[in-house]
């Protein structure tokens, strides 16, 4: 019986890892889609990729500010499920401002809201 329980724990642990992996992959893809669409300034496309509630600003405000500073995605360095909320992922990015890569990474919180992953700025 002990072997069976041990095998169950291994299966559950593997499922947890793949679940975390699928969350981080989905969050990273949301960040990529957002930055790919950012130059268009099309909030019909961008708004569904932005988190709402709390201190979140409108899509138009967020997009205008990011574009005024010439913010663009250089690369995603990694991501991890937020230890405080299993439905949130912290995505570590490298961004450029006005064409020059910033020294410090940007940590973006990507939250699962209404069944979709959304970036919070």
Could you explain the architecture of this structure?
- The chain is of the alpha+beta class.
- It has helices at residues 2-37, 43-46, 59-68, and strands at 71-81, 88-97, 100-101, 106-113, 116-120.
- Strands 1, 2, 3, 4 and 5 form a five-stranded antiparallel β-sheet that branches.
- The chain is globular and about 35 Å long.
Characterize this entry briefly.
The protein is of the alpha+beta class. It has three helices and five strands, in the order H-H-H-E-E-E-E-E. Strands 1, 2, 3, 4 and 5 form a five-stranded antiparallel sheet that branches.
Biggest β-sheet strands, sense, barrel: 5 strands, antiparallel
The count of helical stretches stands at 3
Low-confidence stretches: 1-18
**Beta fraction of the residues?**
25-35%
Output mean pLDDT.
88
Give the N-terminus to C-terminus distance in angstroms.
50 Å
**What is the general shape?**
globular
Radius of gyration using CA atoms only: 17 Å
* Record field, number of beta strands: 5
Report the helical percentage: 40-55%
Structural class: alpha+beta
Run of helices and strands:
HHHEEEEE
Keywords: Signal
Organism: Pyxidicoccus parkwayensis
Protein name: Lipoprotein
Signal peptide: 1-26
Give the helices and strands, then pairings.
Layout: H1 2-37, H2 43-46, H3 59-68, E1 71-81, E2 88-97, E3 100-101, E4 106-113, E5 116-120
Antiparallel strand pairs: 1-2, 2-3, 2-4, 4-5
């Amino acid at each position: 019986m002990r072997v069976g329980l041990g095998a169950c724990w291994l299966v559950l642990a593997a499922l947890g890892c793949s679940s975390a992996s699928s969350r981080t992959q989905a969050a990273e893809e949301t960040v990529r889609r957002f930055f790919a669409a950012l130059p268009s300034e099309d909030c019909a496309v961008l708004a569904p990729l932005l988190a709402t509630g709390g201190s979140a600003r409108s899509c138009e405000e967020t997009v205008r500010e990011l574009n005024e500073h010439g913010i663009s995605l250089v690369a995603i360095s990694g991501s991890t499920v937020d230890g405080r909320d299993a439905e949130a992922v912290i995505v570590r990015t490298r961004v450029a401002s006005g064409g020059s890569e910033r020294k410090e990474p940007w940590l973006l919180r990507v939250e699962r809201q209404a069944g979709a992953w959304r970036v919070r700025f």
